[in-house]
Amino acid sequence: MFRIAKTFKFEAAHSLPGLPEGHQCARVHGHSYTVKVILMSPVLTGPGFVVDFAELHPLGAYIDNHFDHRDLTTVLDVPATSEHLATHFYHWCSKHLQLPAAARVVKVRVCETTSTYAEYEPELP
């Protein structure tokens, strides 16, 4: 099995509802996010790719146009946690990226800081 990954970056703010009074994440604050999309395939295409990295450009454009320098509280219909962001980007990639037949998105990792991340990887049937 072959795996590749590509990382995208964006800056954004958010606040999280329902947290105890005084919790730092209840206040509006910002992060330098990274989004890593991980793909795999049992076979290689073209000159030896799982997927040409250029084929992942639509995700970068989507992030730039809809998430970069935004208040994520107004972008998503759910609280803008790293877990929800990872899930959102996974489903967006699965729906919008044009991948070779054997390739698939395995998981998406979202980092808020250099030491914290959340991943979404669906269970396979």
What does this molecule look like?
With about 120 residues, the protein is of the alpha+beta class. It has helices at about 55-65, 80-95; strands at about 1-15, 30-40, 70, 105-115, 115-120. Strands 3-1-2-4-5 form a five-stranded mixed β-sheet. β4 and β5 (about 115-120) form a beta hairpin.
Secondary-structure map:
Layout: E1 2-14, E2 29-41, H1 57-66, E3 70-71, H2 82-96, E4 104-113, E5 116-120
Parallel strand pairs: 1-3
Antiparallel strand pairs: 1-2, 2-4, 4-5
Please tell me what the overall shape is.
Answer: elongated
Distance between the termini: 18 Å
Cα radius of gyration in angstroms:
16 Å
Biggest beta sheet attributes: 5 strands, mixed
CATH class wording = Alpha Beta
Helix content: 10-25%
| Beta fraction | 25-35%
Secondary-structure content class: alpha+beta
What is the CATH topology classification name?
Tetrahydropterin Synthase, Chain A
Number of strands: 5
Number of spatially distinct domains: 1
Task: Supply the CATH superfamily name.
Answer: 6-pyruvoyl tetrahydropterin synthase/QueD
H and E string: EEHEHEE
Uncertain ranges: none
Q: Total helix count?
A: 2
Strand order of the largest sheet: 3-1-2-4-5
